Amino acid sequence: MSLTPPAESCGEAPPLRLTDRRMAAPFDQGAAARPGHLDVITHRRRTVRQALMAIRWGLGLLLLILALRQVDMAAFVASLRGADFGWLLVTLSTVLLGIGLKAVRWSILLKPVCPEKSPREVLGALLTGQAANILLPVRGGEVVRVAAVVRPSDGRAGAVLVGIGVEKALDFLALTAAAALALPLMPAGLPSSAWAKALAAGLAMLGGALAVVLFWRRAWESVRSLLDGLPAAPRDRMQGWLDNLSLSLERLAGSGNRVQVLVLTAAIWSVMLSTNLVLLRTLGMTPAAGPALLVLVAVHLSLMPALMPGNLGPFYVAVELGLSPFGYPLERAALYAILLHALVTLPPLAGAGLYLIAARGRAGRP
Prior knowledge:
Elements (H helix, E strand, L loop, with lengths): L20 H48 L4 H9 L3 H26 L8 H17 L5 H9 L7 H26 L10 H22 L1 H11 L5 H19 L4 H28 L6 H14 L9 H12 L6 H34 L3
Helix pairs in contact: 1-12, 2-13, 3-4, 3-6, 3-10, 3-13, 4-5, 4-13, 5-6, 6-7, 6-9, 6-10, 6-11, 8-9, 10-11, 11-12, 12-13
């Protein structure tokens, strides 16, 4: 009896033999078909995203064409030559003041969560987020702002994002107040029912948001009770995230912070209103609260769809809709839209660029 092992056991192992082809087929087909199937899904999703982006861009360009197609270029150039560029510098100063006030407000909301952040870092993150909102086809500037302050893996990211949500809720309250103030200042004879309905819807949404803020403790306790059935690791992560959210809302519980943030919000919107008023004076147009308020409300509503980078088309249409009821010439309204758009977009872009360049330089130092 030979003790020599079979030839197959020496050297390389023999190939796996599946005698039943019906057993082997599913493995072979799954290995071959699954990557192709995933490629098809990825391609379809990419195609849908590209189609949606093309639709948004198309709508934005259409609005831009509609805003400028009836402008008399000779009258437009005459309006440009008649502009008072000294007042334009005053308008620019109000825009810069508004950015500074927004940075102060956000620093107050951010301090309980990230007390180590310097004013330079807070301002730089704010400008970076604003620049991202201007340049990106979808408004993702708030996510960029969070990433500029803390890393995505940092447990405080959720609290920072909720702080921004508190900031947006206050801005929504101010927007609703601006619409309420603009409504009685509309020229006589114009239909105001649409504005009244929009104001009522805004107040209803605001009431819901305030209810959530007021009763957030009960909401957190209910959510925490649902976490008990989860495994330890995800439960601890979600528990930490909820604690950070609770901390971010707690920042408004103290009377000092609440009053400061509310006062700053009122100051920010007052400064933005003054920007519109001074720009009217710059172009020789009668400065009045009605058109300034209406432009302020219309421009902020135009930002919501995020149709195209820079919001060019919706922005120009919003400005013209805000000025046309008050009888301003179309050419001056178009010039007003161009100058206002430049004033509110160029400073954040320039500031964000300078901040990122300086941050890269500091990172490269030994």
